[in-house]
Design goal:
single chain, Pnp Oxidase, Chain A, 7-stranded antiparallel beta sheet, 7 strands
Length: 135
Amino acid sequence: MASKISKEVQEFVKGKLGWVATVNPDGMPNVTPKGTVQVLDEHTIIFADLFSVKTRDNLRNNPNIAVTVVDLNKFTGYQFKGKAELIDTGPLYDKVKEDLKKAPTPLPEPRYVAKITVEEIYDQSPGPNAGKKIG
């Protein structure tokens, strides 16, 4: 069942770097930064994959994914866990492709967009809620 991403967390994600974790069929983890993480709606986050062959291959074999987004200046963050769908055609892909053309640095066309149905959300900030499931 999808978790609801609160308005506060949706606002937090905007413009931040995310770290995406996947695993290959042999159980070897892969973590890679993504500068395109964004909230699509209250149950879904997305990112454009521009370079990560391992991430794509891992998600083709196992859709389970974790994405952690942090604000290093404030030492706050959230982790999202769920299942990813790889999209390489259609309206969502086209929208992300157009959005990337507006980036301040020229970027390649995305290989795909990962659309993640968020099943769990965890607080990654220091303090009494550190590591607690919040969604």
